[in-house]
Structure formats: structure tokens, C-alpha cells
Design a protein that fits this description.
The structure holds 2 protein chains of 2 kinds. Chain A is α/β, with parallel strands linked by helices. Chain A is built from 6 helices and 12 strands. Chain B is of the alpha/beta class. Chain B is built from 13 helices and 9 strands. In chain B, strands 2-3-4-5-6-7-8-9 form an 8-stranded parallel β-barrel, surrounded by 8 helices. The mean pLDDT of chain B is about 95. Classes of the chains: A alpha/beta, B alpha/beta. Chains A and B meet through helix 2, helix 3 and strand 7 of A and strand 1, helix 1 and helix 12 of B.
Chain lengths: ~210, ~290
Amino acid sequence: MRKEGGNSQIVEKKQKKKNNVTIGVLALQGAFREHIKALQKTGVNALEIKFPGKIDEIDGLIVPGGESTTISKLINKYGFKEYLDKLYLSGKPMYGTCAGLILFAAEVLNEKYGLGYIDIIVKRNSYGRQIDSFHEMVELSFDKRKRFEAIFIRAPKIISAGSEVDILSKINDNIILARQKNILVSSFHPELQDDLRIHNYFLDMVLNK
Amino acid sequence: MEKGTLKVKTGLAEMLKGGVIMDVTTVDQAKIAEEAGAVSVMALERIPADIRASGGVARMTDPEIIINIMNAVTIPVMAKCRIGHFAEAQILESIGIDYIDESEVLTPADEKYHVDKWEFKVPFVCGATNLAEALRRIGEGAAMIRTKGEAGTGNVVEAVRHMRAIKDDINRVSVMPKEEMMTISKELGAPYELIMYVKEKGKLPVVNFSAGGIATPADAAMIMQLGADGIFVGSGIFKSENPLKMAKAIVDATTHFKNPEVLAKISRGLGSAMSGLEISKIPKEELLAQRGW
């Protein structure tokens, strides 16, 4: 468990460390600018990734929400698979929101993609069409002081998760935020609002690596 | 659990950003669009170029056609209702459409009022030619704006004019003193609160795509560089010589809009684009962008 506040020297040290951190955001399509803004607010550097580059440039990667079919087609077309695999194998933290969650999954029902970075089976658009998109206040296992406003847009469902997967938040029986080693996924969009706790959780994964 | 709120309505538009929304009239076209990487399709009976050519009253598409398209693809599906035609909008909402376009491409059903979009759980996108028109639509509940351009012409000049007009208006409002805002609101005919939002943030309160005349990857790149969040392509794809190739190229151009080397590569060997229309040769009363107010 993380402790905020308290010793101001520790906080200062952490901020100094953050200034040297660079997080890449896959910028092929979708809400990548919102993730970049959120990252900048936390004090780290953010880098738009439009082509597979060197993995040394970044300390972690966010794959944003967007249209998963579009993003996966562009990933294949521009040769991103090898780049993403390298990142994954290097152990650098990666966070997938919505479309990103779908791409990281071990299996996606009725679809060919699924990079196999996290042991979950996913069903796309599983809460229904846009008219069933919703938001709800949810509890985060790592910070129970205040609920988090989770916004779901034509969201995927995690149908099942392996025993290695840590469940960080749920609505009813549905897992909505989960982690396995260096991979974090959410079926909702923390980048669409101002609460930075999930981005900060991800940055802790990066800083503690 | 809250549904149909502005947050989820604008949320979908946020997810479409940096993408291309394509007009389609058949299941096969919808599949081609999805295959090419479209973020969404607009289900239509006729594409704008054909509506323009055949004249008559253009109405909401037969729900049968829309439902077939909804069943054929997994990306979100949009459909158009006539300006002010709330009953068409109700029908579209009831079949579970993902976004309604209250569109000047169809024949307006009301000469005075647009649809009260707050009454709906489904989000709306509306056309605009300048900032005030965009803010009026947002005031009525639109969750996404698209600059109108001139649909079905394959001529990007009007889309460019409207993008620039919105940008110029935003810049103007941003630098004006605060005490002038109520007068500006009155002069432009735009809601005061929304004018204040634009002044403070220097941008529209919702996502702004560009439509009407985009026919090549270069058109898409130009309009993205002018500040569009994404692109609608109507006739430009299925009136071109090789729709799948053209569709893929426009998707790529919308991602790599700032990169001329990539644009040069994807612009090569596409076959001919749709043949375009000179705006000045179109009779004034046939211009679509002037519909709506």
C-alpha cells in the first residue's frame, strides 16, 4: 500500500524521480491527447508514439481508448507488434484503457487480436451499444478513501481472469481494473476526468520497477 | 449507474478522435469501411453526391438498411435525421443507433427549430459553419460538432472555410476582455456560458470533426492540420475508383497528418478520386451548408 503525504522529503524525492520518467502514449487513434495531459499533470514526461521506435526512449507505455479494430489494424500495418512484444518482455509497465485492454488480452471473443500480455478473456462492446454507456462511482482496492468515477464507453467485459491476475476494482461481478505483473488494464476511461489516482498507480509501477 | 449523460455522450466522440467516419449505403460498403480502419460508419440510403444529383426530398434512411449495417459491423454506427425532425430521431434512438447526425444533407423538416437534443439518451452530432452556430447546437444538447463543408462536392474549400472560421472566432473571443462577452454573446447569438467556456479554454466544449468535400489523403491531412479532431468522408470513398484503397489511405493520412513522407507514400497509385464540383457553379439554393442556422 502506498502512503501519500507524511514525510515531505520522500514526496520531494519522488517528484524528482518523476521528472526523469518518460511515458509513451500510443498515438494512432483515440483519446491519446487526454492521457498525455493527465501524465503531464502528474509531473512526468509524455511522448506521442506514432511509429515503433527504440524502447529505451520510454519507461512505460499507455495504449489509449479508441476504436479497437482501427488501432489493431494500424498496429499491424505499421509493424508495432514486435515493438510492443519487446516492451512487454523488457518488463516495462504498460497500461491499456478500453481498446488498450482488448489489445493486451490473452483472448478476445470472436476476434483475431489479443497480444497475450495479461491472462484475461475479453468480450468487446459487452455492456451494449452507446445507449448503454454509463458512469459509476467505484472502489479502488489500493485507495478506499474515496470512490473513483469510472466512465464506460461501449466498454469491453473481462469474461474471465487467470489466478495470476490481481483484481483492483469491480462492478458487481465484473472486473473493471486489473493487473498482472507489469501490465495494467481498465475497461473504463480515467483520462476523461480529473482524478489522477489510476495514472499515479501506474506511475508507481514504473517508479518501483 | 448513470446513462445518457453528457459525459458518456461526449465520451464516445472522444474515442472517435483521430479517426475517419465513412458514409456507407450497403452492408458490403460497411464491411469495406471497417476493414479499412474506419472508427464508425454513417448508414445512408444514398451518399451525398447522389442526393445532390437526384434532388427531391431527402429523408431518414429506412431502418431496415440501418439495422442490417448495425448487425454487420462491430464499430459504432451513426445515422442522419432531418434538421428539426424529432420523430426520425426517436426512431433512430429506438433501434439503438450509436450517434444521430442532425444533418443539413437531408431536407430540413423544420424551418425554425432544431431537435431538442437534451431529450435523448443517444448522442447527437450537428453541423456548423462558425463558432456561434456550433455553440447554439451545443446549447441544444449536441455532444459533437462537425464543420459542414459542402457535402457531395469532393471539393474541400468549404470545409476549410468553416474550420478556419471556427478557429478565427475562437481566437477572437480568447483575446477579448471579459466585460465584452455578454455583448459578443448577443451579437453572435450564442449562449453566454458557452462563450465564456471558449474564452477560458480556447477551444470548443466538444469534439469537432470536419466534413463535406474531403476526397483525398492530402485533404484529410490539411484539415487535420487546421485543427480538426477527426474526419467524416462521404462520397469521397465510394465515388472513387478504388474505394478500399482510398479508404485505407485516408485512415492513414488522418493518423500521420503531420508527416509528409508518409503522406506521399500513401497517396501514390490510389486511382482517381471522385470527380469534384466547383462551388461557384452550384446554384445558390442548392448549397447544403446554408441549411440550419
